Amino acid sequence: MAEREGQVKILVVDDEPQITTLIKRFLGAAGHEVTTAANGDEAVLRAGDDWDIVITDLHMPGSVDGIGVLKKARETGSADVLIMTAAPEMDSAIQAIRNGAYDYLVKPILLEALAVSVQRCLEKRRLSRELAREKALRSELNDAYNELTRMSRVKHLFGQFVTPEVAEYLLIHGNAMERRGERRIITVLFADVRQFTPFSEAVRPEEAVDVLNDIFARISAAVSREKGIINKFLGDGVLALFGAPLPDECHAKSAARAAIAARDAVEELAESRSRNDRRPLRIGIGVNTGEVVAGCLGTNDRAEYSVIGHAVNLAARLVNEAPPGKIYLGPETVALLGEGFRFGVKDPMVLPGISQPVIATELIGR
Fold first, then answer.
1. Coil, helix or strand at residue 214
2. Which overall architecture, per CATH, does domain 2-132 show?
3. Is 282 strand, coil or helix?
4. Alpha-carbon torsion, ordered 18, 22, 24, 25, to 10 deg
5. What is the pLDDT, as a whole number, of residue 150?
6. Please, which residues have CB within 8 angstroms of residue 84's CB and are 6 or more apart in sequence?
């Protein structure tokens, strides 16, 4: 509207030419764009011209009086209407206000009073625009907040199945979903609950699930503290990754610390169960470092973030050989650890599916 650009469009309606001329000159000198109409009939024909303010006499010859102009202006636009009359009556004033008039002026018009009324009207319109903008902004902010809340809920629920870190990765890279993945050198940790199958046969299913979840919670906490992620729960086992999808230059040391913490936490649980005459459960752990392909693997209908490569296979073989309470490391992991860890016997092992014997080293502690 012209008003927003600093110039106000005003229509003055009166059957007395001297009044329309006076008001036009006065408001025109103030910088407003003023047009006049000689009666109500002429005014309603121009009602669709998008006026900002309409100043109209109340009593005029013709079929349309000031109230008619007022109603038409309110129906066809957003103009504010100022009513003028030389014969003020309480009933007519009330009728004008009820029909939406902004102000009621008495003739003869005092130009100072007219200026004040117009200024008040413009200030009201400015505040109305600001309020409308504020409401629109608030609506946009509410929409954005609701969308963020929804996405946060989705991410939280998604994270319960694929870990929050993988959920974040998929939310960022989900559109690409490149099947080829990317090459990375990472450290893989497998943990497996020993003797869980006979244990689950001897107890109620609910108890088996509760105990398994308790063990998984301790392993997950140890992995999370070292900035690793739980990639999969494999029946009674866990696959954790260090260095993917989140980068970690010290992934081998992070995995080693997590393995020690997980083993100790589960050993503590086993001792607690033994003291309470309940069958203890312990874990074996295999850790290996090497190059893998990491990314979203699967089909268009179902895919998951995963890692593929010899390093993963070797870690899986090591965990199968690790006795309860033991941690076996692949040679690449040992080479990256250096000082700060205590190692046990290095034992050459012939592992299923691995062509050459592997020197597996027991990790005892820090």
1. helix
2. 3-Layer(aba) Sandwich (3.40)
3. coil
4. 130
5. 72
6. 14, 19, 55, 56, 57, 58, 66, 105, 106, 107, 109
Burial 239-249 (b: 16+ CB within 10 A, else e): bbbbbbbeebe
Q: pLDDT of 244-292, one tens digit each?
A: 887 889 999 999 999 999 999 999 999 999 998 889 999 999 999 999 9
Integer Cα distance of 259 and 330 in angstroms:
13
pLDDT (0 to 100) of residue 199: 92
Question: Closest Cα to residue 310, out of 327, 337, 329, 292?
Answer: 292
Q: Can you name the residues that pair with 163 across neighbouring β-strands?
A: none
- DSSP H stretches of helix in the chain: 17-29, 40-45, 66-76, 90-98, 111-162, 164-173, 196-202, 205-225, 251-275, 310-321, 331-337
Q: Which fold has domain 172-365?
A: Alpha-Beta Plaits (3.30.70)
Task: Please list, residue by residue across 170-180, b when 16 or more beta carbons sit within 10 angstroms of its beta carbon and e when fewer do.
Answer: beeeeeeeeee
Single out the residue of 19, 8, 11 nearest to residue 106, CA to CA. 19
Angstrom distance (rounded) from CA 308 to CA 291: 9
Angle at 138 between CA 134 and CA 143, to 5 degrees: 150
What single string gives the DSSP state of each residue in 41-74? Answer: HHHHHTGGG--SEEEEESS-SSS--HHHHHHHHH
* pLDDT value of position 131: 81
> Do the beta carbons of residue 315 and residue 327 sit within 8 Å?
no
Other beta carbons within 10 Å of 8 = 22
Q: Identify any residues that bridge with 33 across adjacent strands, giving them in sequence order.
A: 9
Phi then psi for residue 97, to 5 deg, are -65, -40
CA torsion angle 213 214 220 226 (round to 10): 180
Contact 309/293 with Cβ under 8 angstroms? yes
Scan for tokens 């009621």, then name that residue. 104
For the chain (366 residues), the mean pLDDT of every run of 10, in chain order, is 60 91 90 90 84 89 89 84 82 78 84 88 83 79 77 58 59 55 92 93 92 94 91 91 89 97 96 91 96 80 81 94 95 91 86 85 92
Q: Answer yes or no: same fold for 2-132 and 172-365.
A: no
- Spell out the domain ranges in the chain: 2-132, 172-365
Q: Provide the whole-model pTM.
A: 0.56
Q: Which two tokens stand for residue 287?
A: 């850790």
